[in-house]
Amino acid sequence: MSTEPRIGRVLVASLHQAISDVLPDRLEFYENWLNAPGLREGTIGLAPLSAVLSFLRLEGEAYNRTTALAGEYAADWSISSMSPIERRLISVLPAPLRARAAFRAARALVRSTYPGSRAIVKLKRGTASVDLRGSLFCEVREATDIPLCGFYVAAFARVLQKFGLHADGHVHECRAASRGAGCQLRVEVRRSRESEPAAAA
Description:
Helix content: 40-55%
Radius of gyration: 17 Å
CATH class of one domain: Alpha Beta
Largest sheet: 4 strands, antiparallel
Low-confidence stretches: 194-201
Number of helices: 9
Number of strands: 4
CATH architecture of one domain: 2-Layer Sandwich
Mean pLDDT: 89
Shape: globular
């Protein structure tokens, strides 16, 4: 029996759905690795996902659109999997405490993508510095010209949005481009204009 760590279902499923939306004509090709039995049983391993990401990087701008959309899907499904009581409790917190709770949920999402992935968040005066370690999107042999960890920026922003907060995020440093130890994200948070958080429903 293989002891290779498995990729989290939320990552695989969100990536599959995003490819279907952005690159529908290429979905059959990517399903050589993101196959139905693996999606259903949660048995997609590191090698198949690495192959998918390698080919996605060759798709040009579609890479960014696909991975960002996948991050949004992952956030939506992660928040939906929380109990209604937990979502409600977070949604009625004052904005500063709600932001901290939302970042905890986003950190849990990162951990769920892959056993070796984690995020350390430092939130101060509405701006969060996210130290992202073990991003599978950034496992490349050669340095790239663009950051590759947009999946996580989109996921963090979407989680905050689901709890009635607006977030502007960007990649401050990506190890795929800088060859550093990890990726650094910046997320600025402010209260949404919406009167009721989407997650409270």
